[in-house]
Fold this protein.
Amino acid sequence: MDFSYDDRTLAMKNSLQSFLDDDIFPAEHILDEQLAATPDEWGTRPIVRDLQTTARERGLWNLFLTGEGGAGLTNLQYAPLAELTGWSMRLAPAATNCMAPDSGNIDLLQAYATEEQKWRWLAPLLDASIRSSFCMTEPDVASSDATQIATRIRREGDEYVISGRKWWATGAMNPEAELFIVMGKSDVDAPRHRQQSMVLVGRDTPGVTIVRPLTVFGYDDRDHGGHAEILFDDARVPASNLLGGEGEGFAMAQARLGPGRIHHCMRALGMAEHALALVRGRALGRETFGVRLADQGVIREWAAEARIQIESLRLLVLKTAWLMDTVGNRQAMTEIQAIKIAVPRAVQQILDHAVQVFGAAGLGPDHPLASLLAGARALRLADGPDEVHLAALGKAELKGKK
Amino acid sequence: MDFSYDDRTLAMKNSLQSFLDDDIFPAEHILDEQLAATPDEWGTRPIVRDLQTTARERGLWNLFLTGEGGAGLTNLQYAPLAELTGWSMRLAPAATNCMAPDSGNIDLLQAYATEEQKWRWLAPLLDASIRSSFCMTEPDVASSDATQIATRIRREGDEYVISGRKWWATGAMNPEAELFIVMGKSDVDAPRHRQQSMVLVGRDTPGVTIVRPLTVFGYDDRDHGGHAEILFDDARVPASNLLGGEGEGFAMAQARLGPGRIHHCMRALGMAEHALALVRGRALGRETFGVRLADQGVIREWAAEARIQIESLRLLVLKTAWLMDTVGNRQAMTEIQAIKIAVPRAVQQILDHAVQVFGAAGLGPDHPLASLLAGARALRLADGPDEVHLAALGKAELKGKK
Amino acid sequence: MDFSYDDRTLAMKNSLQSFLDDDIFPAEHILDEQLAATPDEWGTRPIVRDLQTTARERGLWNLFLTGEGGAGLTNLQYAPLAELTGWSMRLAPAATNCMAPDSGNIDLLQAYATEEQKWRWLAPLLDASIRSSFCMTEPDVASSDATQIATRIRREGDEYVISGRKWWATGAMNPEAELFIVMGKSDVDAPRHRQQSMVLVGRDTPGVTIVRPLTVFGYDDRDHGGHAEILFDDARVPASNLLGGEGEGFAMAQARLGPGRIHHCMRALGMAEHALALVRGRALGRETFGVRLADQGVIREWAAEARIQIESLRLLVLKTAWLMDTVGNRQAMTEIQAIKIAVPRAVQQILDHAVQVFGAAGLGPDHPLASLLAGARALRLADGPDEVHLAALGKAELKGKK
Amino acid sequence: MDFSYDDRTLAMKNSLQSFLDDDIFPAEHILDEQLAATPDEWGTRPIVRDLQTTARERGLWNLFLTGEGGAGLTNLQYAPLAELTGWSMRLAPAATNCMAPDSGNIDLLQAYATEEQKWRWLAPLLDASIRSSFCMTEPDVASSDATQIATRIRREGDEYVISGRKWWATGAMNPEAELFIVMGKSDVDAPRHRQQSMVLVGRDTPGVTIVRPLTVFGYDDRDHGGHAEILFDDARVPASNLLGGEGEGFAMAQARLGPGRIHHCMRALGMAEHALALVRGRALGRETFGVRLADQGVIREWAAEARIQIESLRLLVLKTAWLMDTVGNRQAMTEIQAIKIAVPRAVQQILDHAVQVFGAAGLGPDHPLASLLAGARALRLADGPDEVHLAALGKAELKGKK
């Protein structure tokens, strides 16, 4: 359980830090301008393309990808890099092609896709020439309980026919999102966790309708492809578009979510550090009633609490990464649940305090705090509400499993 | 300290409830349609006008106004009505002409305006033929500390010349907002709380520029006039536009804020009751892992905690209203501070739990929860961050002042 | 819902305040000396007797008793008096004969006892010539669930035979506690809430063994009769010692607990005010690192939060009392549950902060804080753990029952 | 930053676990009996002596001592051992001679004592043939601010004369505590942190009076020597009893407290694990209202939260130990402050929930929970109230120091 950074990690961390300082932070206002110039478009903005080019040149590409085709880092090595990308949530993950949900989809395809599927979808994703979305959540059922999924995937001849309604398909508003990985039930009579399958559905498949974009709080998250409601009305795909085997959908989803959760947590720590840096600047530069904010007891208390939370949770994230690297995602289940619950809410609290330090400015568009707060809040529901994980973790704990 | 509803209150409460059921709730989707049809406009939508007509016919107009020209209710009588309007934050306050910031501005004008000022501004505000904004917060200073205000109001001949930058001027994006009440310093050499004055500035005054709209957690709050940044660049108004006397700005602002705070709290309780009603519906209609949400321990705990908070804080709000009615706003200072701190954060917590019960749907546009949560969060900063009030309340408590 | 103090309440409140100032507070060190002089005895100390004499002379006797034989106050009238007694938990309730569990036992006897039972037990209790204990909790079952009670009360001829083990029988270590009201099952085949009965058992009944005193944290609570474990080993009492009817035990217990809970809450508010007064004195008189405690942000915040909690919860207690007076204990169930949950934990938090302000002194014997904190903590379990009440309250809320 | 257990640690951990299972846990009831047999004595009980003999035989002696004379472990190696001793706070630390305050005093003496002082005091402490106490806290000043210390140490010829009043001298009620290390001011005109000195004062020194024992939430903590108030009334010791140099008292105190704090935290984690194990047993064996506690949502939530807290804070404790081992106590200041704040309060919360699961039994003498809760609560004040550390940590954070 050695959490020290090895030489390669240190080198990449320095390189990534330079990339942030030299290219990404200065690009944020360019992104704003490009978004403002074409307010109705959902596609990837030119500045992101430019940064992607630079990232590739700097060797900062597909950092999350533990196996071939990526940077080949362990989760433990990736952790500090992912955290750094959390300092610029709008640009850094996209620039390094480490952005959800594409990163999770890439993991899935690398693990389960056929050679043909890889050629068709994985290769362009690794190259960022297309984007993708993951279609799991449904409006009409509690999707944290996969047995309730209502979307149906039925075999007809050499095709699968998909019918159902999905929403919160992140990234799907981007027209470059050519691939939808759709989870549905292929056999409702099979055992509970063998009923689900996944199919690869092209954006242009007849029967696929992008119904509308959704907002998180008031944000449409246009800068990373938004969140779509999608109707699948007897959409037909070749049988060869099945991902993995029939009935393996639940297991594949579980396998996909573990890394996804830890990546969210790593980035969230970067969000928190960023917020704390902003607070520091504000608290040193403002005063109320004759006392500098940095000298006020309550604000000092908040800063101390933030530091304590970040330090302890970062270690837990690192331990989780180390467990995933050494004993596998399944054996790291308890820790993945723990960080999935603990990190987003701690970061939400840190951001909430940061907003309070910034006053009304903290609610608005001039600082990233409100947007980050909305994102951290959403993480408490992403991949299932925290309470589902708390219940599972508590159940295991009371059985004496450890 | 009798909190029972008297006959008049009960009658108006029933009347308002009918108005909500018959007219306002059904109108919400019409508002959505009208907003969608003209996405770039900031003006009052036709449906609001229609509801205002109905409200007047039903005798539900200017309910907040304790003195002449309004419904003539006490704060205690108004409390349950304001709470009811919190069930439809987008329509009910506007329909009954009880919407912030106009309600506070009307209070101010009624108390301090000259006859001419009343004729020019108060009459149309009472009639809802114009709207108004209150320009206090500034981007460059901690505006909770009124002594830091940077906007200058200088006398030149028979004019006042205003220069400064204001933001979070709620309602000001609405072109019907013809009146801006601007707080600034008219004499920086006067004692700390005698430096400030207020002037009435017409929207069309040369030198007044609406710089941009602001967002609260991504929401532009277009349905009630948004929040503007406004530049006053040597804007000139006749000397007769001074509200009250020179140097009385601070005292008038304090006087304005007391009622404003309690109105926010009353409506926030309605928001919480509304959220709880939504939770009830959801919890009875959904299940996860074979157990109905309403039968799950954690959700029951949330509902119980919400009920406890609402019941105890409603009583504190009523006591505050009763004190304002009987001994005056100044003597109710402790209680006003207490509810200003306690109600928004309790309601924020109730809404946060409600979002969690709704899952991803709670974050999005199909339910009012995310929008209400953003609004409750913003209340913790409106009229000064909670911490300023906590410090003042604690200071008084430790002096033994009760 | 009028919470103003009427003339009688005001007069009694003033009278009780004088009694506290003149007699009770000065008597606290005498109690300490008398306890130190006879460390192994459990009986009522002479100073308590003296104060009881004074209380009777001052007309401050049996204040809690709403019906005949007592002061004849409503719950609403009693509330501020009970709160005042919370300023001296060791002496004031005992001095005024308003001490748990005797007060609850008196209520029970007055409602359900036969004339003979009243003559034998109620009269001396009203007179404080004896004391009593209530034997409900059992070591082997979760006693919040009355259907689990293991003590058996069986009829044999004209006797009842009681066998079972009880503990946390408050007051029972005092040899003057001549009466034990014992809850047990008389018919295990009856419907769930008709199985229980109560019998009156004299301390000297053969088969009754005081097993040992218990401690709450490290306190033996010797000053009010301690808490006993009691073994009933085929203890026989005349059939006429049945209280109420067979099978009515559960209903009687419920009836007893409502007033008991609100009395606890009223006194707890007095504990909190007392703590806050102590904090005020400490904070004004000490400094650390050059800043007076009263001027430190975190301590101001605690004081403000305490004031907010006390003000809002006091109102909820008053509303509960008013409901009990006007519509009855049953109809006040939601509110009784709410205060039972909310008041002790708020007071625990206030006391916890007060201890922190006092530093190590707050943990020890020189201030009442640690002892009060232990008492407030115990209230979260008395009459059932909070979670049982939270679950019931939440269940009702989610049914839409209001 | 490698937190894996090395071979030596693993071997000692196994050995210590066997000692606990074989000897210590079975001895707890013997301690109870011995305490009950001689309720008025403060000395070390025979069973502790017996266990000490066994510990020495097993090579489990002075485990905490990093340097010569002890087990020679690093802090990182000691951490899991100290945690294990937290499973039996009454016996394990004493049995292994790792008990506060002797362990801290031993550290001090080893670092600063002269050869003669070592021979006289350190040798018997290492051997457990005497015990010791640390006299820092004073009743009349906020002792977390060392500049306020009122005790005076004045040089007269070849003697130091000590006058002052100390309390919370842990262990000092034990007559075997032959050594008091007393902190006082030797030069009030020196710079703020150079005014303090420490002297070694024998228990039998004329002028030393043990005034009284103190209680922590009613516990006299007799099993580890209690907490004494001590009066030093011109107590005279030879000048050679000065520890370190004049004016070095503050620096020595700081040096002493770092390891003391981390040891408290390590043991506190063991207390939490112990509590959780007790909860597990209770939750599996009880039911209320027909549902096993282990299947109730709220209790699962508590168990999950406990696991999350323990896992994340243990890692932070290990990191702190590793920093102390590698870069020194001074460089680990931030982390020591962080765990000092975070661990006791988390453990307090875990114990509070555990008490709630146990119901009234959790408050009493049959389970260690109430006693552990009192101990954890006291830790939030030991070595200075948390708020002092929070303020310092927050101040550093807002300076950008990291």
Remarks:
- The CA atoms of residues 174 and 225 of chain B lie 5 Å apart.
- The longest strand of chain B covers residues 159-170.
- Residues 249-285 of chain B form the longest helix (37 residues).
- Chain B has a mean pLDDT of 95.
